[in-house]
Every structure is written in C-alpha cells, then in structure tokens.
UniProtKB/TrEMBL annotation:
GO BP term, example: iron-sulfur cluster assembly
Gene3D superfamilies documented for this protein: Fe-S cluster assembly (FSCA), Scaffold protein Nfu/NifU, N-terminal domain
Domain Scaffold protein Nfu/NifU N-terminal: 14-101
Any Pfam family the entry gives: NifU
Organism: Hymenobacter metallilatus
GO molecular function: iron ion binding; iron-sulfur cluster binding
Source taxonomy: Bacteria, Pseudomonadati, Bacteroidota, Cytophagia, Cytophagales
Name used for this protein in its record: NifU family protein
Protein family membership: Belongs to the NifU family.
SMART domains named in the record: Nfu_N
InterPro entries attached to this UniProt entry: FSCA_dom_sf, Nfu/NifU_N, Nfu/NifU_N_sf, NFU1-like, NIF_FeS_clus_asmbl_NifU_C
Amino acid sequence: MAEQLTAPAGPVSIYAEASPNPESMKFVLNSQLLTDGVSVDYPTLEAAANSPLAQELFNFDYVGRVFIAQNFVTITKTTEHQWAQLIPELRTFLKSYIEAGGPIFTVDPAAEQRAAQQAAATGDASEADQQTSQKIIDLLDNYVRPAVEQDGGNITFKSYQDGIVTVNLQGSCSGCPSATVTLKSGIENLLKRMVPEVKEVVAEGVTAQGF
C-alpha cells in the first residue's frame, strides 16, 4: 500500500474566506495539501474514498461537498445553519487534524489527475481535435484555474467535440448563483477568442441552483 500523504509538520493557521457561492466557504491554510495545479472535488462521502480528511469532514452532518486544492479546503454546506455558527468548529477541526499529522490522501491524486486529463484530451478524437483539446486545457490551466481557485473552486476540461467544450464545475463553482455568468461571459468568450474552433462551452457537475 502506498504511503499516505500528510501536510508538512508545524503550526497551522487557518482563516475562512467567503466565496461567490453563499453555501460554500473557503478555508485557507499556511500549509500545502496538494501540488500546485492539482485539485480534487468530492460531491459525496462515497467519492472521497482516497481522502481520509474529506471523509472526516463528511462526518459533520451539514457538510455536503468537499473540495481540496494546494493550500485550501472549500466546504459546501447543506443546511440552513449560518456560517458564523459553523466556521469555528470547522476551523478547529482542520487545525487539529492537520497539526496531528492526519492523512490527507491515501494515494497522491496528481498522477491520476494528469492521466485522466490526457485521456480526455485524446480518447477517440481526431488529431486535429486532440490539438484543439490540448489548447483548451492549457488555457484553462493558465488563465481560468488561478482565477476560480481564488473563489474556492475549479473548472476542469472534460471533452471537446464538434465545437462544443464540456467542462466540470468543482467546489464552490458547483451550484454558485454566478456560475452561468462566469461560464458564458468569461470562459466561453476567452476560449472563442483564443481557439476559433470553439462554438460553445457547457458545464457538468452543477446543481439546479447553479444553472
């Protein structure tokens, strides 16, 4: 069995930062949880099999989604509780868990994510579509990801076919009231301008609230 991944040892400071999605809160740490550019999104407890930390967070009955990136954890709540009630409890838990050396992941997600992205870009696509897919991936990684991570989420490439780009919305982006505007006014316009083959961008991994 592979060695479990933990955060670097040392005192942990955490602060909570609101996201555009009122149901999601970003907890920013002074500790690295993942390699820059790698993120994982767990919409359910079952999906979090590789992350003991996420599994522990799902034990809180108000936690509905967990997103983990380089130095933050975005938690989406499911109840009518106010964040003012929940933040102290979640911040205390995260600080204690990470300072105690609790495992973040069972297996490093980086290699798996790279393989999945490569498979999505190639698959059964023609050589021209593969080249277009790689351009789209590069643009999402270099221009879109840093911006949406600031809001506690991520947008990842899923597929490209017949001018249609399909992306996955993760973390706070899923179910965010402003997701439609971000997707159409921001990301779709960027991709159309930089990659003329792109006609439309559509999203998966969203809730009814978001779209």
